[in-house]
Amino acid sequence: MDNRFATAFVIACVLSLISTIYMAASIGTDFWYEYRSPVQENSSDLNKSIWDEFISDEADEKTYNDALFRYNGTVGLWRRCITIPKNMHWYSPPERTESFDVVTKCVSFTLTEQFMEKFVDPGNHNSGIDLLRTYLWRCQFLLPFVSLGLMCFGALIGLCACICRSLYPTIATGILHLLAGLCTLGSVSCYIAGIELLHQKLELPDSVSGEFGWSFCLACVSAPLQFMASALFIWAAHTNRKEYTLMKAYRVA
User: Fold this and answer.
1) Does the pLDDT of residue 1 top 70, yes or no?
2) Antiparallel, parallel or unpaired: β 209-212 and 33-36
């Protein structure tokens, strides 16, 4: 094996490993989108009601999003979290003289919630099903797992190529990484579109701002790494095969 191809193969493996770690971290963390709002200093009856509804299994889309807006919420692919005061008061203290502790509470999305239909008017089951938002949500949830699976399968093929001491099977690894990159890019695009459509339905309060979090950024970085690894795998395998064929033809001649 030529040193050029071996070097390209090693670099592609490193890029593949980094993108896999980034993608796995992105899937497993809760900071795809973050809301910033004024901290609620006391727990009124309304606040307590919102918290109870947020952790309820029957919370609909509007209910938990209202809580996310109000309590510095973060959203991942699997969980939603809010930040609330640690010591809850059932009255408004006369004046705060010292800082108070806050605690983050998270609730996981069930599989039923992941595949549940989204409505034209969030929270209103009589408003009709919003098919676009429904399938965007499902794609943003499924595509990262498909991407991760493709990379793992590609790594298995690459391992077999190393055992066989041949670069040619890594063409399949490159193609799988290309498909994985497309899945990651599709997931990111679906998430952006879904968030924009949601905010058109549920406008953010004046004192609340939102931004994409670092988990989302990891997914964004993972996609180009997968494309670069794919290009290196395919180039190394194709060029090595081509040179081997020319060398074999030369020997026959």
Assistant:
1) no
2) antiparallel
